Amino acid sequence: MNAxxxxxxxxxxxxxxxxxxxxxxxxYAAALIxxxxxxxxxxxxxxxxxxxxxxxxxxxxxxxITVLLVLTLMGSWVFGSDTTALAFTQAELSLLFPAPLxxxxxxxxxxxxxxxxxxxxxxxWVFILRRGGTVLPGPMRALAIWVMFSTLNLHRLGAALVxxxxxxxxxxxxxxxxxSIVIFAAVGLSLVASLIGAHDxxxxxxxxxxxxxxxxxxxxxxxxxxxxxxxxxxVAPAFAQSITQWNRAILPAIGMVIVHAWWVFSSDTAFEDxxxxxxxxxxxxxxxxxxxxxxGAIAPPxxxxxxxxxxxxxxxxxxxxxKNMLCLRRTAQLRVFVGPxxxxxxxxxxxxxxxADLGLVFAVGxxxxxxxxxxxxxxxxxxxxxHDMQHLPLIKSLPIPAGxxxxxxxxxxxxxxxxxxxxxxxxxxxxTLASRANPLGADLRLAIVIAAPFGILALNAAILTIQNAxxxxxxxxxxxxxxxxxxxxxLGQNLLATVATIFSLAIGLIVPLIAAWxxxxxxxxxxxxxxxxxxxxxxxxxxxxxxxxxxxxxxxxSKAEPLQTT
Amino acid sequence: xxxVRELTKLYGDFTxxxxxxxxxxxxxxxxxxGPNGAGKTTTLRCLGGIIxxxxxxxxxxxxxxxxxxxxxxxxxxxxxxxxxxxxxxSVEEHLRFIARLYGVVDVExxxxxxxxxxxxxxxxxxxxxxxxxxxxxxxxxxxxxxHDPSVLILDEPLTGLDPGGIRRMxxxxxxxxxxxxxxxxxxxxLNLVEELCTKLLVVRQGEHVAYGTIDEIIQAHxxxxxxxxxxxxxxxxxxxxxxx
Lengths: 566, 244
Fold this sequence. Notes:
The complex is a heterodimer of chains A (566) and B (244).
Chain A: H1 3-22, H2 26-44, H3 59-79, H4 90-96, H5 103-130, H6 138-168, H7 173-176, H8 178-197, H9 199-204, H10 208-219, H11 224-235, H12 243-266, H13 272-286, H14 317-331, H15 338-351, H16 358-380, H17 385-388, H18 392-396, H19 402-433, H20 442-473, H21 491-522, H22 527-559
Helix pairs in contact in A: 3-6, 3-8, 3-10, 3-11, 5-6, 6-12, 8-11, 10-15, 14-19, 15-16, 16-19, 16-20, 19-20, 19-22, 20-21, 20-22, 21-22
Chain B: E1 2-11, E2 14-24, E3 29-33, H1 40-47, E4 55-60, E5 63-64, H2 69-75, E6 76-79, H3 91-102, H4 107-117, H5 133-145, E7 151-155, H6 163-178, E8 182-186, H7 190-196, E9 199-204, E10 207-212, H8 214-220, H9 229-243
Parallel strand pairs in B: 3-8, 3-9, 6-7, 7-8
Antiparallel strand pairs in B: 1-2, 1-4, 4-5, 9-10
């Protein structure tokens, strides 16, 4: 067994053994059983229902994923955002770099390590797609997804190596970027030309589904299809609708993997300096992340050039909130919101039909974005215990009751997220006033806009309490830190975690909904009044429930211990 | 000021600390010494309220750490060997944060003095990631000293400091004790312990093997008379090992 195989094998084995030892704790054992049942029900349970997910694997999705792939790779080339593609751990840096190893060997090791993450995500996606009863057998689907993820991984590493060589040769930034800019500009132009050409077709559709179908068809025809061709080769097998299609697509895709592997392995770039810089950058912010689950880029920290005022007297828990607001300000990654915003605009535009009713476009877009932020927002900002559990000794030495710490931490992420959603709901309401359609009726809309802040606040508090609870109760299983995983490879894990959160929230909503139903039974009034009463009652009940959970979480935090050190 | 009785900490079947008792009065500096893995950090973390003891009691400035932990934590400062700092707060913001937590009303007066004393003034807008190891240690020390604690718990406080910083830290520890603070100092630097500490607690494998002033310890072990602290330390820890 060579040294790298030994390192990977023993590290993996020890990790599994440590995880199994942890299961001796009743809390982890219970979580494992619940988690196992959840995964079984979500992923493995035989599904005889119609192929619900297979419809998602059609041409529109295929073309949109291709465009996303272009955007991801453009980030690596043009903006150099993938600074950590060359990062090694501090231990690897200390022990492997001075060792008598070739650069190719180090690259090979890095790629092998990355394959573990790739394979885990391939399995997750295969199981998720299996639920849809798609026509492709599991192994074929797995190979197709593996080809896609591996090519992406190789390409990002290759791009990082080339950029490292540019830096090494001291070429001016704009000059060294010119080829990548030209290529991606050409791809961009082909897309724009297609979209302009299809403006009338896109404007004529009247539903979201139809919009994406037309968009997919437009992108699959020249000139967009020409610009997207090399990227489409990588994606095509994963979206094959039949074995014949798969057979046709897989060989070119495997060819792309081979070409990429040859490109990366034949590179003899002196990447050490770039690797050390990237590793230091990563280590500084990710030391406490026990497992690297994303190869997504990490935003550089913003300098502390401006601050927020904090009075030296007042409730001490507010200091935690203040600290976390500074953290949010310095770590917020606006690019993670690009996807939801784009999707919301697209859905808004699709729903408005020919686009004549701008009020409706804004209203639908704002509401779609509100819903998306409600479901996924908690995963986009992490300035709470999911970050501070890294500083447990410091947090626990503070003279504040643990329950108040948890309350301040949850509020740190829940309040900003709720505020954004409330603004969006207000935008939606104001936009409907300018719409000719008068959706839902004026009284219902007014009831919603009045009651929405209660519901939004309660739901965000509940969802973020659930996510903070996982960090406190299962710190060994949760990725800690402020950085958001945005890599394509992390999508599967993020999806699983989001569904688990929604499932927990659904259980939490049982009592509030019963309470709301009981109240509405005794309250008479118009439909609008009843709707407002339902939302507000359920929100209050959920807040009470969440507060109880926060108190319990405080107790758990006071018992939580850093790793044993003597 | 600090009173510890029968402190025990278990991790599953492993006993990290077993029935340790000691007192540190105002103005005293207790040196906590022992080989690696002796249970020093675990003991200090229990004292700092970071981990809960499996058995025994800890009182800080008259407040029981189990039943009145907030008041106990108000009175103490725990400075760990590895500075735990928030990645996204600047030097000055760390101190303002601590000031709010501990209710330091005259922070505007204390802050520049402390920053000057620890040579952090020029770095007050820097984030921890922009600081050297020594600078980060100084910031952790500044956070500990800002609220003028009556109990100081220091775990290898000189790690990463430059010679000037080491000298100033020694003076600070002695000065704090002279002003009435109770100090516990854990360190492998036996010359530092010998210079500063009024009492010693020697631990090994989670148990205390000697406790008292250096004279009292030598009195209990007459064969160590005339030997350096290093020899005394090595003899005590190896005696126990042989006895064990």
